[in-house]
User: What shape does this take?
Amino acid sequence: MPLARPLAAALLLQLALAAPAAAQSQYADAVIRYLPLYSGGPGPTLGTVLDPTTALGSPASAPFVTLGRGGLIELAFLDNVLTNSNSAAPDLWIYEIGADIEDTFVAIRPTATTALLLGATYDANGDGFYEIGKVFGSTSTIDIDQFFAGFLAGQLEFDAVQLIDDPAEGDQTGATVGADINAVEALTSRATSTVPEPTTVALLGGGLLAMAAGARRRRR
Assistant: This one.
């Protein structure tokens, strides 16, 4: 039955494509902006620390991106969103490495739905990011429920993180001046990839099986 085999293979392929996706990455996936001279500098001068994409994905001992004195980086989550946990557990992890432990101001960007829930009060400078304090170097965590209390777990969603080096802290000059960032992790996270509903998968499988049966009958 030469026609049945291709259809059976197609059935298996379609069902595999329709199956729910695996767990999504909790780490930042894309660079929005990197401005090492955001607050006037000086900026880093070592070429290997000027690539903002080294702050994407899971943490590693090297490489990393250096912000510069008062420098800024904004990183987006593409396949997931940072959410609140409605608990005292940390929700966000900033991985800052290097010999000089340096402070970084942190802000997070709400989705449109979350911005409506929270209002604009938290956006002090009108740039779309809500300020939530700062971390004090090394691998530091933040509990976003300390800033946005009274919401159910997962009710608030944020799709990007903004980090600004504290220009008044740490070394003021040098080849790697400013905080050194090599990862940002949403500890409390929800995947945003769309997968078909179970009913859709069942209909797809049933349709392909009917096609295969029809082909067998025609072949006979």
